[in-house]
């Protein structure tokens, strides 16, 4: 158990390399769960730089002992303008990752709570995300945080 405080804060440019490194971890873990569709990769530097500077995004980091040990990245979005869709603006979490050595320390919970505050402060009606069906630990975590399944994507491999 970690007794020292992990600080959740907005990312700054100095966090770029740490966030990129965590993206490599995230992409590797996702690829292991779904190797037919995903592969280990690096995130584009420009993508993260934009997330830090563009205020339609919210990129939070978890700092522990002066090092970035996790991040949560969300964007302000609007529902598609179809006749059957209710017009609404919502927060969409693209990615959430915590270094393996700090998992189970409520950092993910802190990220979700901070994203809820950000969403409410920006008059967003919902907090949404996607999760791999194979990522059972993440699904259980999100359900504990109060999220529930909205849609399901299905597929079949063609020979």
Mind explaining what this structure looks like?
By secondary structure, the protein is α+β, with helices and mostly antiparallel strands. It is 32% helix and 23% strand. The chain has helices spanning 16-33, 45-53, 107-121, 136-144; strands at 7-10, 57-64, 67-78, 89-98, 127-129. Strand 4, helix 3 (107-121) and strand 5 form a beta-alpha-beta unit. The model has no long low-confidence stretch (mean pLDDT 95).
Summarize, please.
It is built from 4 helices and 5 strands. The protein is α+β, with helices and mostly antiparallel strands.
Helix content: 25-40%
The total of beta strands comes to 5
Q: Outline, from the CA principal axes?
A: globular
Mean pLDDT: 95
List the helices and strands in order.
EHHEEEHEH
Report on the biggest sheet: 5 strands, mixed
Q: Which structural category do the helix and sheet elements fall into?
A: alpha+beta
Q: Roughly how many Å is the radius of gyration? A: 16 Å
Low-confidence stretches: none
Beta percentage is 15-25%
Read across the widest sheet, the strand sequence of neighbours is 1-2-3-4-5
Number of helices: 4
Ends apart, CA distance between termini: 48 Å
């Amino acid at each position: 158990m970690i007794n020292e405080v992990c600080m959740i804060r907005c990312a700054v440019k100095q966090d770029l390399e740490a966030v990129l490194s965590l993206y490599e971890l995230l992409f590797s873990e996702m690829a292991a769960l779904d190797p037919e569709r995903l592969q280990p990769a690096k995130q584009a530097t420009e993508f993260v730089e934009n997330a830090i500077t563009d205020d339609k995004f919210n990129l939070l980091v978890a700092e522990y002992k002066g090092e970035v040990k996790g991040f949560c990245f969300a964007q302000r979005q609007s529902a598609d303008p179809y006749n059957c869709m209710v017009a609404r603006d919502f927060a969409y979490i693209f990615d959430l990752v915590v270094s393996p050595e700090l998992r189970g320390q409520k950092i993910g919970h802190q990220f979700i709570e901070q994203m809820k505050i950000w969403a409410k402060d920006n008059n967003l009606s919902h907090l949404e995300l996607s999760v791999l069906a194979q990522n059972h630990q993440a699904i259980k975590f999100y359900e504990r945080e109060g999220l529930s399944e909205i849609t399901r994507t299905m597929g079949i491999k063609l020979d």
